[in-house]
Amino acid sequence: xxxxxxxxxxxxxxxxxxxxxxxxxxxxxxxxxxxxxxxxxxxxxxxxxxxxxxxxxxxxxxxxxxxxxxxxxxxxxxxxxxxxxxxxxxxxxxxxxxxxxxxxxxxxxxxxxxxxxxxxxxxxxxxxxxxxxxxxxxxxxxxxxxxxxxxxxxxxxxxxxxxxxxxxxxxxxxxxxxxxxxxxxxxxxxxxxxxxxxxxxxxxxxxxxxxxxxxxxxxxxxxxxxxxxxxxxxxxxxxxxxxxxxxxxxxxxxxxxxxxxxxxxxxxxxxxxxxxx
Length: 277
Prior knowledge:
This protein is mostly beta strands. The protein has 3 helices and 21 strands.
């Protein structure tokens, strides 16, 4: 009798599980789409207007990456600084538990630069992007001279026309476009369709003394995946240069320098002279 009851229970249980298979219904394991994202980018309001501080919030079950133009943060909640007024796009990328990505663009509008912004963003990029070309008004646009002693080519000097041979890929009509969006830098020559894209950053705390109580360089410019026009080291196998001293930066002039490795005062340095287009 007992055996027949046990057999009956086994048969019933088998029938039950056959009709209702076990499923993993844990929603946290399922990827979510862009429409399901709970993310926001909200300007901090100061005196009734949108300031240039923006609060980012991700309330979705995905890892965060926010690209706000001049930088990236991977915090779920963060406050970032925008550097221009007007509409901007902040891009969110989330990583789902299954390894897939989900993206969403959020538009924000900044009414006022309430919080201080490094002025170099505006000088380099204007109101969003700005193009620089060889400064033909300078006595020379590229060449070398004494480190800490010269502020422009003063030994081997080259005018704008000579850049067609000195920098054949981009030539005398090459240009550099700095953009706030993505902190991007594009080197191009429209007539030859040559173009190389990368990014840039700067650090104005890294100044260089001239040894006589003054400044030789007012900051550093760094580039990634792209150099400036003629951004090579002729005495070092034409190796690409990605870090430059900023000798002058204002609305109209961008003058750069780079000392050869190990150079001391009056050792060999290279110079690039650009103007705003």
